[in-house]
Amino acid sequence: MFDISAFVDALTFRAGYNTAIVAIGAILLGWAGGTVGTYLLLRQRSLVSDALSHATLPGVGVAFLVMAWFGGSGRFLPGLLLGAAISAMIGLACVEWLTRRTRLKSDAAIGAVLSSFFGLGIVLLTVIQSLGIGRQAGIGSFLLGSTSGMLRNEAYTLAALALFVAFLVFVFRRPLTLVCFDETFARTSGIDIRRTDLLLMFLVMAVTVTGLRIVGLILVVALLIIPPVAARFWTEKTGTMIVASGLIGAASGFVGTALSASVPNFPAGPVIVLVAAVLFALSLLFAPARGVFYGLYRARAFSRKVHRRQGLLAILRGEAIYDHDTLKVLRSEKLIHGDGTPTRAGLDAAETAAREEALWTIYARNNPDAANRAARMRLDPIAERLTAGEIAELERQFAGPSGVLPAR
Amino acid sequence: MRWAATRPLPVSTANWPVAEMNVHVADSGAALKVRGLSVAYGDKPALSSVDAAFQQGRMSAIVGPNGAGKSTLLKAAMGIIPSISGDALFFGRPLDEVRSRIAYVPQRASVDWDFPATVIDVVLMGLYRSLGPFKLIGRGQRALALNCLEEVDMVSLADRQIGQLSGGQQQRVFIARALAQKADLLLLDEPFAGVDAATEKTIITLLKKLVREGGTAVAVHHDLSTVTAYFDDVLVLNVRRIANGPVDKAFTEEHLAEAYGGRLVQPEPELA
C-alpha cells in the first residue's frame, strides 16, 4: 500500500506537477502557521484560533448561496474565502464581546461561539446539498481539506499569503513580542495593545482562511498550535522559537503531502497534522532545552551534585565515606584514590566547596523566601548563579568586621 | 480585573481660582504633575481628585496603606488604565509629546518569567521604541544593553533565561531595561517588593546616582522605615492626597496617622 518510491519522488518534487504544487503550498502554509502561531501561543490565545476556524463555516455556506443566487458557480474560491473571513471576524467579535461585557471566561465564550457557528455552518451545508444548485459537489471539503485538483493559481495564493505574513511579522515583531511579554511596559512605550492584538488576529485569520483549502477548518488550528509548542522545547529565545516553529510547520507540510501522495486516497490535511504531532512528540522527548529526557538527565545530574558536595564536605572534615554512590561520583571525578583517600584535586575541591557552602548559607539567611531556590543553586559553582557583586557582598558579610576573607 | 470603559473627561479650568492657577504655572520644574486625578475600578473609587507634583532632579516616594491607589496613580498617569477625570503632565507637557523621556518599571509579578527570553533580550526591549520596525539590533545596541546590565551587576548572567533568576536579579533586569531607554524620568512600581537586601542596595545606589546627574525618580514604596534614608520628597496617599512635599515636611507622624489610621505601626511588607 505504501509506495516508498512514490514517497521519495514526492520528497524530491518529481511526483508530478500537481503533487509539487500541493507540496509547495503546504510548506508555505505550515511555515506561515508556525510563525503566526508562536505569537498566538506567547499571547496565550491559542484557543481563539479554534473558535476562529470553526466560525468560517457559515461564511462559506452563505458565500456559496449568494454566488449561486447570482447565477455564478458557487465554488468560486476567492468568494468562498472572503465569506469565510467575514464570518470568522463576526465569530471573533462575538468572543471578544462575550469576554468583555459578560462574566463569561474566555474558554467558555470560545466554546459557545465555536459550537454555535459550526452548527450553523453544518446546517447551511446540508441545505445547500438538498437544493442541488451551483455545482455544490466538493463544498464539504472545507471541513477536512482536500488537495486533489489544486490549481496553480491556488498555490500562488498560498505563496502570496506566506510572503505577506512574513512581511507583517517582520515589521511588527517588536510590538508583538513586547505585548506578549509585558503588556504594561508595551503600553508605556506607546504601543496600542488593542491594535496589536487585532493585527495578530488578522494574521491568524489569514492563515486559517488559506489553510481551509488544504487541511480544512477542523484541523487548521493544529498548524497554529502544534509547531510553536514543539518549538518551545528547543529554545529559550523568542526569535529562535519563531524560526524553529516555522521550520517545524514547513516540514510537516512537506512530509505530510509527500506521505499522502505515496498512498492512494490518503488525505493530505490529516496526514500533515499527524506529522506535526510526531514532530511535537519528538521535541517533547528529546529537545535539549526543555525535553523530558533532558529533564531526567538533569535530575540525575542533580543527585550527582548532591553526592559530590556531601563527599567533599566529608573529605574536609576527615570523615570516612561509606555511601556507595558518593564514592562512585568522587572516584569518577578523580577526587579520591581507589582506597578512598582524597587526591590533591579532591582536597582543593573540598576547600572550594566549603567556602561556597559558607557563602550560600549566608545567602539563604539573607533570602528566607527563596529557600528552595537556594537549596538547588548552592550545589552549582557560585559564580554561575550569582554575579560578582553579589558574591563580594556575601564575602564581606562572611568576613565580618575582622575583614578576613574565607579561604579560596 | 476588568476595567470600566471610561474616557477621560475634559477638565474645565473655568472655575479654578486665579491664584491657584498661578501656583501651577510657577512650579514648572515638575517632572510629573497630576491634577484632579480620579480613578475608579467599576464603581469602586481608587483615587479621588488627587493633585501631586514630583520635582525634577529629586527622588520621590509614593507611600500609603494597601489599596491606597499608589500603583494606580502611576498607571493612570501613564495611560495604562483610564481615569475618570483629571490629567497628568510630564515636564509640563502631555505624555505623548515626551514619551521617550519616561521609563516605566512595572511590578515584577506582572509578567510571565517563563517567557522565551534571555536577560539581554529583555534589556534590548528598552531600545525597541528607538529602533523602529526595520533597524536590526547590532553591536552598538548590544554594547549599550551590556552597559546597562553592568550598572545593575548582571552582566555575567546576560545569556540566562529570565525564569532562572532570583527575584532580586529579575528586578535588576527590569531596571536595566529602563536604563536602556535613557529616560529623564523613571517611574517604578514597587521596585523593592520581594527583593534581597543586596539588590535593594544596588538599586537605591543607582537611582541616587541618576538623580545626582539630573534625573528624576518616582517610586511606589512600602517600607516606611527607609523613606527618610532613600527619598527627597514624598506623596502620602490614601485614595486622596494627604501630603506632598519634601520628606521633612510631608512625611510627618500626623500625616501618616491620617493615612494609616490609628494603626501607625510598620505595615507588613507586601508582596505584589
Automatic annotation (TrEMBL), chain A:
It holds the Pfam family ABC-3. The keyword Chaperone does not apply. The keyword Translocase does not apply. InterPro entries: ABC_BtuC-like, ABC_TroCD. Coiled coil: none annotated. It is a multi-pass membrane protein. It is found in: Cell membrane. SUPFAM superfamilies: ABC transporter involved in vitamin B12 uptake, BtuC. Keywords: Cell membrane, Membrane, Transmembrane, Transmembrane helix, Transport. The chain crosses the membrane at residues 20-42, 51-70, 76-98, 110-135, 155-172, 198-226, 238-259, 271-297. Belongs to the ABC-3 integral membrane protein family. This is Metal ABC transporter permease. The lineage of its organism: Bacteria, Pseudomonadati, Pseudomonadota, Alphaproteobacteria, Hyphomicrobiales.
